């Protein structure tokens, strides 16, 4: 099985190209395959599996599976890698391009220099702020400053969906945060019927924040594109930042803008790691 390994700010993915395959999408057990391929000792290693598929409604279709086999609606870092892959392979040469995802059809703009993709801007669409659509068990729109209790401790959170759910919590200092305990506890908290991604945010200035993320189905990762978008939206809703923000992540920086058209725009890289043949079948 041929594969390509890619990463966006250290958020790494195994890519399988099925865009030219005549096999039905349902013929492969992608959840099981993701668990095998993403295992860092017995497989290739990765935060997720991305499958490149043809689309009847866009230029291409992206399906992503977390390392635990679950299928999220979208992945911001993954879709930037996806755009670069299908462009470089000559599968799609349109710019901007349209990609079908579980969160809808997204428009991507490529930054190309001397024939090489240097970066990708993704129109992530409008943030979802209504509780029942995020979903979170709460009231109102937006969901700001609600209380959540974990192991006897209470935290205030803002809930945002960028096609997938996010719980954003502002902290003064990461050193006092029990990340490995609080992250998974909130991910699976009963307030979130479909579980949630969890972002802890430190405000550095009105135009810069630092983020630590516990991803739904993947755990701690070096970056999360949808999480960066949701965190900027939450920061603006809480009057903590301006509308154009640099998000510092363990794997590098993302540039996020919540435009006046109510769309969120994410700009960042997508890079290759290696390619090969998996012999573990």
TrEMBL record:
SUPFAM superfamilies: Diaminopimelate epimerase-like. It catalyses: (2S,6S)-2,6-diaminopimelate = meso-2,6-diaminopimelate. Pathway: Amino-acid biosynthesis; L-lysine biosynthesis via DAP pathway; DL-2,6-diaminopimelate from LL-2,6-diaminopimelate: step 1/1. Its main location: cytoplasm. The keyword Zinc does not apply. Pfam families: DAP_epimerase (PF01678). The active site is at residues 75, 224. GO terms for molecular function: diaminopimelate epimerase activity. Substrate binds at residues 11, 66, 76-77, 164, 197, 215-216, 225-226. Keywords: Amino-acid biosynthesis, Cytoplasm, Isomerase, Lysine biosynthesis. It is found in: Cytoplasm. Belongs to the diaminopimelate epimerase family. This is Diaminopimelate epimerase. It comes from Desulfosporosinus hippei DSM 8344.
